[in-house]
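Duplicate of earlier report; UPF0301 protein HLB09_10330 input re-posted below.
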Amino acid sequence: MTDGDRYVGRLLVAAPSLWEQEFRRTVVLVLDHDDAGALGVVVNRPLPVRVDAVLPPWQEHVTEPARLFRGGPVALDSALGLVVVPGDGPEPVGVRRIIGALGLVDLDAVPADVSRSASGLRIFAGYAGWSPGQLEGEVAEGSWLVLDAEPSDAVTSRPAGLWADVLRRQPGRLSLLASFPDDPTHN
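Output:
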């Protein structure tokens, strides 16, 4: 792993102090990070839209909740597929591994071919993107916690609880952030 891709495959967990509505209590899986910037998808924001509203062939293959997820504020009219493929064998047809069990899906592939070897599949509308140095600056100022991901984070059946779940499994005092109140003024 080079210094430029140190966040690839890791989670950006919004710090409790990040109040910007777009990213408040979000969990972002970083898919690309180099000198040109960074790109990821918010993995805990399901939309009230079924996948078949935009990509009908994929509906029966996506992981519950079988909804389209808002991947971020950029290019909401585009779709990105993410898959969990256990093992370290060759890439299945229609999948490009990112890191470990996580891979990007070619949405022009045959859904049954992709899902045959997958333990989870999710479709995102849009993505989160950062210009060169922007993400590093946001991490340095404390907006994001950079934490290790588990493959199941990308396709959890409990997206609403993912922010707290990821924090709760951290060692030491960091796990205490999981119980940080949604609105500290009501504490």
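The domain at 3-177 is CATH 3.40.1740.10 (VC0467-like).

Merging into the original ticket.
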